[in-house]
Amino acid sequence: MVGNFPYKSILVVCSVNTARSPIAEGYLSHFSNLFSLDIKVNSCGISSNARDGMLISLDAKLVM
């Protein structure tokens, strides 16, 4: 299936976009590059306190 991934983009969604979804975005981006998949990966938050430009949490950054 490498090279024939059926999707062109992936959107990872969580509540605030400061931990779970940025981590998932990072891993998916890494593996899509590693396996030469032509996909775009993004993440977002859907909670009312999620804002554009929020920084990833320090704990999430340390995990990555």
Task: Walk me through the structure.
It is built from two helices and two strands; from the N terminus they run βαβα. It has a single domain (9-63), classed as Rossmann fold (3-Layer(aba) Sandwich), CATH 3.40.50. With 64 residues, the chain is α+β, with helices and mostly antiparallel strands. Helices cover 33% and strands 19% of the residues. A two-stranded parallel ribbon has the order 1-2. It has helices at residues 20-34, 58-63; strands spanning 9-14, 40-45.
Number of discrete domains: 1
Radius of gyration: 13 Å
Low-pLDDT runs? none
Oligomer classification? single chain
State the CATH architecture.
Answer: 3-Layer(aba) Sandwich
- Give the full name of the CATH homologous superfamily: Response regulator
Q: Specify the biggest β-sheet.
A: 2 strands, parallel
What does the secondary structure layout of this molecule look like, with pairings?
Elements: E1 9-14, H1 20-34, E2 40-45, H2 58-63
Parallel strand pairs: 1-2
Describe what is shown at a glance.
The protein is an alpha+beta fold and 64 residues long. 33% of the residues lie in helices and 19% in strands. It has one domain (9-63): Response regulator (Rossmann fold, 3-Layer(aba) Sandwich), CATH 3.40.50.2300.
